[in-house]
Amino acid sequence: MRIVRDYEFVEVQDRGATVAIGNFDGVHLGHQSVIELARKAAPEAPLGVMTFEPHPREYFAPDAPPFRLMRAETRAHRLEKLGVKRLYELNFNTALSSLSPEEFARDVIAEGLGLAHVVVGADFCFGKGRAGNAVDLQRFGAQYGFGVTIAPLMEYSEHAVSSTAIRNALSEGRPADAKEMLGHWHRIEGTVIGGEQRGRELGFPTANMSIDGLHQPRFGVYAVLVDVLDGPHEGSYFGAASIGVRPMFGGEVPNIETFLFDFSGDLYGATLSVGLVAFLRPELKFDGLDALIEQMDADCTKSREILAAL
Known about the structure:
This protein has 310 residues and is of the alpha/beta class. It has helices at 29-41, 56-60, 72-81, 94-97, 101-112, 134-144, 163-171, 175-182, 198-202, 289-308; strands at residues 2-4, 18-21, 47-53, 86-91, 117-121, 125-126, 132-133, 147-151, 155-156, 159-160, 187-191, 207-210, 220-228, 235-244, 255-260, 271-282. The strands form four sheets. A six-stranded parallel β-sheet has the order 1-4-3-2-5-8, sandwiched between helices.
């Protein structure tokens, strides 16, 4: 997959694509349906996705609480798995955000990227102040020579599938409901970093990863599917993970700590993808280490049962 970040400097081979446009946070089933419509609109053209980095919400409200379901790298991995050949991950900055709807259609879509066809959701808004909508884009497409398809919103349990609904499910400890909307387990990807090695001392060595900048699922313990994406231990594993601040040890910065079942080895520096399957219990503060170890044993037993039944 080729990644293009500047619409003013585009190679010939990256023009003429059929593209789904959106932020694609989570790459949920609604996003996937838009991408599939783009694939079908012109099967002979390269399949592309246009998105923005940083996320416009981060750009306009940098001090707001973290909300992203995926980092940019994770999103790119997921899109590549869906067969996307061109990722137009445009730099979202003052110049881009200041374009009027017509300027965006003309300067970015038509002249800059030279797109043949674009697909957007029915709730799509674009241009300065989000002043343009999907119908406006159709009108500009007819004017500037690119096709436009408007994708209907997808529903789940009588509600629209959306990144907001997925965030709500994760905040409430409902990863299975999030999966129904995502079409895949919600995954947290990152590099394994050094920790305080308390897990090792307790007999449960964990791989620690930052969740900085990401939406925080409900704090607690989860049954998880773990993919080690690189290094000598590359492969798939079952495990249990704790998300939160470690109340037993006075932690303050939330992270995710994952214990891989039946695993032995050094994972420092490796990239992990941890899929949340089931919420087991909230974070607790125990009377002592013996009680904590007993509960961790029970958590692992429960996780094994849940994961074996998948």
